[in-house]
Amino acid sequence: MLRNIGFVALPLVILLWSLTDLTLGRELVTWFPYLASGFVMNVVISLCAMTLGTSVGAVFGILELAPYRLVRYPVVAYVQVFRNAPHLVLIFATTYIFPFEVVVAGNYLPFPDWLKAVIGLAIPASAYVAEITRGAILSIPTTQWEAAKGLGFSRGQALRWIILPQCLRRSLPPWMNILASITMGTSLASLVGVHELLHAATDASTSVRRLDFTIIAYIVVMAAFFTLCYPISRLTRRLERRLNAA
């Protein structure tokens, strides 16, 4: 408990100490809305990437268990490649593979870099979710499949009404770990010019040109990600304990 309080209190103590310098505090207050707008982009990218990655990954996890090799092998290859690919490489790849503009009904519409970052992070997220889904399905005893078949359920009906509801419960803790990992990975989008928190902190540091402000700006970045990811980690542990007890 004391250790957890220390993790939370340390950035706050350093931040309050920095505000004793009125000039530094004024600069921080001036740049705070800019930093906050960057943090909102981090949240948007992480939620969009996890939504897309979960949707694709859940389907791929089921297809990994398909009886047809022509279906199963490409999906397995996709999962094995992208779950071991560096997130930064994928973000750079999607940034330059996808066009900067798309033509819709004769109109040129921009393809924003933040959306490319969403795709770059959704790809590994989908691979992770696919493995979680596959593992959750395999963890269900085969007797449940046999019982469902005995009751007249088709394989698809058994999967939908009996197996997947149990898989959802078992998949939630590892899914939340992926959410925390992807959320922290959104800071990589700054390297391709996306206006997120780390990019905003770098802009602020470059403009103010003070070492103490630079230190405080990056402490704010650390504290913001900690505030977002630490509750996810704690909730994940609580869910794991509850599921193990059940």
Low-confidence stretches: none
Kindly report the name of the CATH homologous superfamily.
MetI-like
Number of helices: 9
CATH architecture: Orthogonal Bundle
Question: Helices and strands in order, then pairings?
Answer:
Elements lengths: L1 H17 L3 H42 L5 H14 L4 H11 L3 E4 L2 E4 L2 H27 L2 H9 L4 H31 L11 H12 L2 H35 L1
Antiparallel strand pairs: 1-2
What would you note in describing this structure?
It is a single chain. This protein is mainly alpha-helical. The chain has one domain: MetI-like (MetI-like fold), CATH 1.10.3720. The chain has 9 helices and 2 strands; from the N terminus they run ααααββααααα. It has helices at residues 2-18, 22-63, 69-82, 87-97, 113-139, 142-150, 155-185, 197-208, 211-245; strands spanning 101-104, 107-110. Strands 1-2 form a two-stranded antiparallel sheet. α1 (2-18) runs antiparallel to α9 and α2 (22-63) runs antiparallel to α7. The longest helix is centred in the N-terminal third of the chain and has 42 residues, at 22-63. The relative contact order is 0.16. The model has no long low-confidence stretch (mean pLDDT 86).
In short:
The chain is mostly helical and 246 residues long. It has 9 helices and 2 strands, in the order ααααββααααα. The protein has helices spanning 2-18, 22-63, 69-82, 87-97, 113-139, 142-150, 155-185, 197-208, 211-245, and strands at residues 101-104, 107-110.
Question: Top keywords for this entry?
Answer:
single chain; 246 residues; mainly alpha; MetI-like fold; two-stranded antiparallel ribbon; 9 helices; globular
